[in-house]
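Why do we care about 3D structure at all? Because function follows from shape, and shape follows, mostly, from sequence. That is the central idea of this module. The next example makes it concrete: a single protein chain, its amino acid sequence, and then its structure expressed as tokens.
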Amino acid sequence: MIPRFITQLTLTAFLAASPSLAQSTYDHVDPMIGTGGQGHTFPGAVAPFGMVQFSPDTDTGCVIRDCYAHAAGYRYEDPTIQGFSLTHFSGAGHSDLGDFLMMPVTGATVPLEPGDAAKPGSGYRSRFDHASEVARPGYYSVRLRDTGVTAQLTAGTRIGVARYAAADRTKPMHLVLDLRSSLYNYPGKILWSSVRLRPDGTVTGCRDTRGWAPNRKLCFAMRFSAPLTGHAFVSTEKDVTYKGFQGPGRGSDTLAERAGRALVARFDFGTLDRPLEVRTAISSVDEAGAVANLASEPGDFDAVLAKTTAAWRRALDVLKIEAPAPMRTSVATALYHSLLAPSVAGDADGRYRGADNQVHVARGYTFRSTFSLWDTFRAEHPLLTLVQPASTSSDIVRSLIASRADSPDGILPVWQFQGRETWTMIGYHAVPVIADAYLKGIRGFDADAALDAMVASATYAPYGGLGDYMKLGYVPIDREPEAASKTVEYAYDDWMIARMARAMGRRDVAATFEKRAGNWRNSFDPKTGFVRARKADGSFRTPFDPTAINYGSDYTEGNAWQYSWFVPQDQAALTTALGGDAATVAKLDAMFDFDTSKLDYSHAEDIAGLIGQYIHGNEPSHHVAYLYSHAGAPWRTQARLKQIVDSQYRATPDGLSGNDDLGQMSAWLVFTALGFYPVTPGSLEYVIGRPFVDRATLTLPNGKRLVIVADGLDGGHPYVGSVTLNGAPVTNAYLRHDQIMGGGELRFAMQAQPNRAWASGAGDRPYSMSVRR
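And the structure:
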């Protein structure tokens, strides 16, 4: 479908971008999925992994509305658009960004305040209708009802381009640039901002914010397609004496400038006989970097849109899908959401701002940031090794290593964006991202430096109770919160270090971390069958309620039901500890069938998408449905996957049951729809589930293609009768990475009743470190 508000020039650019529109996965993507409910996605324009996410903000302040609900700036249920800003997270559980909000205004009077959403005309915000919105990868358009302006957005890697067309061209056009506006906009967040007008008409500026990431600096450069007829730079600070511009100072390259903590700018263009185009670039380094980034991607709106559209077609068409329309749209959009982060965070000249808040230079690669690693190590990054391997090796892993070198603490990122560390969530999950890539044969980075960084992160005693963990073999709850979760997550990361070290011939490192990989046992309570928090004296903390969810308690965003399954490196040992196959299957069933009607989790924002005690809206549950296969019951995995997909995903704005978390929720669906999932990244295996598409073609990094066929797939045939790979029967409950990379045809025969015999033998089960093959 061609967006309804695209001009003839833009339509020409669309057609030029690809002669084969109808068959592209691009055409099935709906960026509106996840913009309602708890998805926290944004509908605006972005290039693959783009530094700029140019998107509408329907509300931008905790003082006005709930921060969590507006973490992405846009919420589908809202009736007004406050403006369009250049930076956003896709699906995060925390809000920030929303940098450099701009809004077109027409008429003689230009309001400089956003106004009240309940009072039309009280400010520069505008009402809008969803019927006027068009969202495609790299493109967004909407008609602003209160001004009659149609706003179109597109983005390159480091730039955003807007086109504003007024319905009544007899009214003068203006642009408001609000440097006070930001997501999670509590008082005092804006530390300082500046704006200046240069003789060539370029507008530049910077601002420093104190939000989720401390002392974050971002600069911009902006150019217009029409000359200015006037402007105003206004400070709205109260009870503060204006001390003038604190920066380089006015010189021959500046016509006007202002600085302060509360700035808003107005740009006037008079009456225009054609739409106004505004090109903007950003840089975390300085204004010069933003100016250079703007120059690095030349062209008007149509040219940038055509280039970005072509880039999205190439990126998305690595996967071709045949399925009923709702499933096809859900999976295509899931792939799209998986390709938004980790985003570019370095300038065109290689400069970037690091974890030490200093400027560094990336040589031979592009610096990436936006690492939501506690979420994305599970499926998002393993998916990228299949669909974006060059980015994984050249950019992501090298950026992680560089961030460790830049870090004042000397460890890998935990949750980082724009090069700045937030220390959010737990674990040292950059480790599995690096190790999984290395074990899959991805190179292009210094493996020795990577291993050194992994070991440094795992032995940094001040972080998250690691000092006690190294002494006691577990994190004690009376010294560190969320100790049960940290113990089992550290143990998995330790196993990943051991795997990479052994592959590199570093036997000493491997032996140390193989021992540490068994530390999950120190938090497992055989009497209750749950992972629990221990105190420093060795006793389990009491009282114990496996259903309790409280922040800062024994577990991270979950409870004992979810975290007791997190032993992906040795599920066979956990099965034995639980009493064997039958007991494990019974406990898994008890988790899914648990009656939660009398439990209240409303105080926990991230707990969404409940199926009993299975919580699909948060990551600790994501591998659990596949664990039936580890206990000899793959058919139960198949049944649970249908239950999850049917209830947790829809091709609608509220179609995600929980935060997309920078692509993890989406990557889960992509893998699951294809019929396999990386339960244990680093094992080089994928557990077979069941497909949810009739046919899919995955173009692999080596140029081969894997064609997945599901014979007889429909609602009445949810079970796998048999599986073949290139005509040979697959009798294991897993596929090896080399089998996937070999390409060919993976064929599922679907049937109405479960095949309880298929892949149920002890020798058919997926990887566990304690089982020799």
